[in-house]
Amino acid sequence: MKQTQFKEPFRPQYHFSPPANWMNDPNGMVYFQGEYHLFYQYHPDGTTWGPMYWGHAVSTDLVHWEHLPVALYPDHNGYIFSGSVVVDWHDTSGFFGGNAGLVAVFTHSEPIPNTVNLYKQRQSLAYSSDSGRSWTMYEGNPVLSDDKQVDFRDPKVFWHRGLKQWVMVLAAGDHCRFYASPDLKEWEFTGEFGKHEGSHDGVWECPDLFELPVDGDQERKKWVLIVSIGDHQDHEEGSRTQYFIGEFDGRTFHSENPADAVLWLDHGRDNYAGVTWSDVPERDGRRIFIGWMSNWKYANYTPTSTWRSAMTIPRVLTLREEAEGSRLFQAPAAELKSLRETLLSRSNLWVETGENPLNNIRGKSLEIIAEIEPDDAARFGFRIHGSKQGEDGTVISYDCFNRRLMLDRRRSGVVDFHEQFGCLHGERLEPVNGRLKLHLFIDWCSVELFANDGKLVITDLIFPLSDCDRLEWCVTGGRIKLHSLEVYGLRTIYAGPAASPVCLASGVEEE
Ligand code: FRU
Question: Is the CB of residue 273 below 6 angstroms from any atom belonging to ligand 1?
Fold first, then answer.
């Protein structure tokens, strides 16, 4: 693995990124013996997508990561596409001599000779009895194939307590398929879902299926099916992720919403192929999600140097009952608070047009939390990663008349690597009790915005020039009341002299 200082232009300072070379989907996320494992689609020989391996890292706090050697290598069955890892607690597979161990269930993708980008996709196993440090390919691979399916990949497996069986959900082109197994080796087809449901703007990929309590009520649970959909030239949004809510009856999934309803997990451009950790202990109980922070529309062209791509921050998923039905909410994992350095904390502050309470803060790695009453303003928001002259930056704003939360990255720095990267996009968002809550995570190449407690999330890549560290609070057409405003610098997760990429501008007194 190439050496890196993790200080290159655009290198995320607290998001997971590979030390070198290309990364896409998170894979095999599992918690085992005190460690969160994160495997990922990895091309160790280049900075663009290519023959796929599984890269590997572990963390005890979801924030600091130890990079480990490549876990899975291509073999005679093909490249290693996306998949999951389970803890086989009772050795149902027989791989572990009666003990518990890790089993990876993934897609072997084998190029079909004399075709362009056509693969034979089959599901396979690998196992590890040393906490994921070394892996053995199962000699009986592949364990599941279907010659009729061209796209047939990304198995997510979990132990179903009621059925006392393993359940697999995988993506088969325009729908999900479900299978059951007693031992991870023999799989029985049980059902399918989705041919006529949700969005079909692109090929279905990377599903995940899990149960969540509604409003925290353990007696009232619903199933969530996450499905990523690939890029398509007709859709400017590129690749993105939808979810369904309903019931898994042990054989197939039933959505509780009309077939044409589409629920987006993220309204930004750069959160794809995300799935959740398996086997998080019950005493913790969280359903923790991470997504690939890129978009197949331009992922191969982003202007980084020796590595390409990062993951989103880890997020906790919950279900809440809203007026329009049950909805998925996302909250930043609490562990990220360990990186905070308080830069500003204010409450009950009126901000008039033209005033900038963030004037004296500089930083490229920040967290901002604000609770706002729009009063008579026409528009308000932030400019982050701003240039000294104030012309460049990424603008996050709320249009009070149209009630739309917008992100504008047209002047966010380097945008010319793809014609559809520089864009303005947004989504309708209603205030709650007359207020809006905005929670922002800013890193050297990204912005993640959690609005109204994570009901609406926008995740976007940006590539600001290195001296763009200004912050601006913008109000136009009136005034707003900031009920609270907190700004934190976020320390880098990499040790070293540049450990604190945040500061107050000189002459500023801390609050
Ligand atoms: C999603 C995806 C998966 C596939 C992997 C290949 O981004 O296309 O469907 O397994 O990437 O790298």
Answer: yes
